[in-house]
Amino acid sequence: MTAVSHRSAEEIGATPHGPRAVPALGEQRAVADITHADTVLGNGLRVLAVRKANVPLVELRLLIPFAGEAPMHPATAEVLAESMLTGTARRDRVAIDTELALIGGELGTSVDPEHLAVSGGALASGLPTLLDVLADTLTGASYTDSEVRREIDRVVERLAVARTQPRVIAREALQRHRYGDHPYTREVPRAEDVAAVTPEDVRALHTASVLPRGSTLVLVGDIDPDTVTGDVERALAGWEAGRAAAELPPLPELAGGDVLLVPRSGAVQSQIRLSAQALPRTDPRYPALQLANLAFGGYFSSRLVENIREDKGYTYSAHSGFEFTGASATVQVEADTANEVTAAALLETRYELGRLGLVPPTADEIESVRQYAIGSLLIGLSSQGGLAGQLSALTAVGLGPEWLAGHPQRVADVSSDEVVQAALDFFAPSRFTGVVVGDADTLAPQLTALGGVRVESPRP
Amino acid sequence: MAVPELHRFTLDNGLRVVLAPDRTAPVVGVSVHYDVGFRSEPEGRTGFAHLFEHLMFQGSESLEKLAHFRYVQSSGGVFNGSTHPDYTDYFEVLPSAALERALFLEADRMRAPKLTAENLANQIDVVKEEIRLNVLNRPYGGFPWILLPPVLYSTFPNAHNGYGDFTDLEQASLDDCAAFFDTYYAPANAVLTVAGDLEVDRARELIDKHFGDVPARPKPARPSFAEPRPGRELRGSHTDPHAPLPALAVGYRMPDPVNELDGYLANLVLAGLLSDGDGSRLQQRLVHREPLVTDINAGAGLFGPFEARDPDTFSVTAVHPPDVSPERVLGALDEELDALAVTPPGEQELAKVTARWSANLHSEHDRLMSRTLALGSFELLYDDPGLVYGLADRIAAVTAEGVAEAAKALRPDARAVLVVEPDQGGTQ
After folding, report:
1. Among candidates A22, A96, A374 on the partner chain, residue whose Cβ is nearest the Cβ of B71
2. Residue B304 maps to which CATH number?
3. B66: closest CA of chain A, how far (Å)
4. Chain A to chain B Cβ contacts (< 8 Å)
5. Domain endpoint, select from B180, B211, B242
6. Comparison of pLDDT for B86 and B138, the residue scoring more
7. Domain assignment of residue B300, given as a range
8. Which domains does chain A have, with CATH numbers?
9. How far apart are the C-alpha atoms of A107 and A117, rounded to whole Å?
10. How far apart are CA A354 and CA A272, in angstroms?
């Protein structure tokens, strides 16, 4: 590979000194307490302001419950999110961007079946401007005909791209398979629905659904929490409504069942997506289940990754993790694998699911995931953006900084027996349902031979 | 804000060290940057630098296969590695109680990685899955980082696919691995960075203890990847079996990122003026006013700025509807560049870009992993980790005339244009 002579691989891998002992861990310093203010304003908006002054910035996360049962809701909501920052009575699209840019700021919007999210940040000195632009948008977004029509065109074009992404195709297939036509499944609107949205529809949806009561605003950064809460209250004084923002109807409990093979002809790689009912963060058994999940496939040193990636080379990306929705939660097991090893990867995944309950995590495995759960939380919370993201997800289900502060101790207190029991109760292969998306001509013979797999009939 | 504290020193074996204490959170970042990236891999071995990065996680003299991951994660830490055009980095972020352990893990694989045929075969499979995931099985895979360089560049180091062809990956041998390690993974060819919750004296002691006896080997001569700039417009096309809409990438050469830093930064500001935010020139005109494209982006470096030495690439990418020809997008781009070349931008337009860069850099430095990696790569590429904290001021000092000069240099007769065409008959 180079002109110079070199040692052999064997010579490189051994020194005269021989293997050395891995050093023990040192003493861990505790996290400094965070100061915060947690307030529900008169209009029903919960404001959580947290001081974290590492850098002179402020992060902002607003979550508005935004569910809707109407068939056109997902399409209208998508266009609303894309058009929300295109102008108000006081500012046009370019003026909004200019004012934000001058304070080093950004605001972005996104929508899913549960929430409309407005997130962003700025230099902390620009917070008054950031709040003013936010308030102006919430109370006065104008959704002019021309801006809305242009955004409709762009959404249609982007949907065409999204629907060619294997992960999007697999996600839609999983949602359909496990929840039928529940509003939660409508994460990506249909292009023809988007094309049929009118500017009037969008304006009406904003009036009806962009509401403070039940919504949460998280601010994290180089701020004084008490002062900032007052600033927010004044800035958002005009955002008022009697009724509460719309919560997603509860999801049905998942039952185990056949894996559906969803055809995607010509694909060179398949998506395996399995899912089962799990526990929300408020459940007393959640910390034990969190550790069981980590041991199964929730981190790199898990049984699933060590088996199907590091031992067999079937995949680059194997993972299991929780999906929290309202008051419920599911666990998702995911891997993308080459066609020729897809059935074998599904077999190994089921084997590891069964083994987690029957040959439960050892004391070493449990200590490893315990340290990982505590340490990775510490790392995630060490940046303003990481802390803001965590707090935003927690406030949406009524939790807050106290939950975060208490979680390391809850994880430390979990007993091995509780982890073993959670592994048996929640990871049994029979509890899982799911999909495999891929080239059915190649995959069907092996997958149907494996059993518990049914081939989807062509959809209209 | 106080200027962050930095300490630099070099061990006897040539390993350069950067320490950046910051005790606001009880976590620490450790990274090792090796001065070799995919531009250094030889012909017939495309993708080798990245494949070798995978192998460095597969065990070393004191650590069995899988042990590296297990020690990092059971200490509460996270890890990764990544291969860039001109360097390869390995890193961990952990609760600070694990600092010595992280140093041990990095030192052990710098001293004596266990390179075996079995692990090589396994990781070739894993890398092929990674390429299927990120390139072959998705729309716009490798766009533009794999597809544009062979149009813009003519020499192998600059033009080839850094992820690698499957045939080349399959031919990689254990002897290739040994040669690559002995040549490029010498301590004198690396930078160790430790940032976050550390005491400087204690960290120095631990670094001496674990890295001090890694044997010195010669630092390899660093080749020049210089090649002449294109003398005309170069064209290429690619048929994408998954893409629903056509796309376009325009590549230009830009000032030397290291030796012409102010000119390079003027290109970064230019990219911001062109495409950052609804008020930027290309967004306003091409996305909203005319509109010709669904999305458009301009930027320095195919993975972002400060990732490579010379030559580096300025690129403009757009996804557009089928009824818009690439020529119309190119025409509009050229008009906007001409306008900026003739009439330099105003003060407010510059202030917008400067403020956003300042906020983005603060945000990047707030994430310990990003900060650790930035300090290491700036030590490696610029011999100046402190530049990480000086960049915002350097960017703020870019003048309107500097931006006009940068716009003027992006000439239609010295660029590459790559067109991505959907494969209508293919699968989606």
Report:
1. A22
2. 3.30.830.10
3. 7
4. 295
5. B211
6. B86
7. 234-344+399-422
8. 35-235 (3.30.830.10), 259-455 (3.30.830.10)
9. 10
10. 17
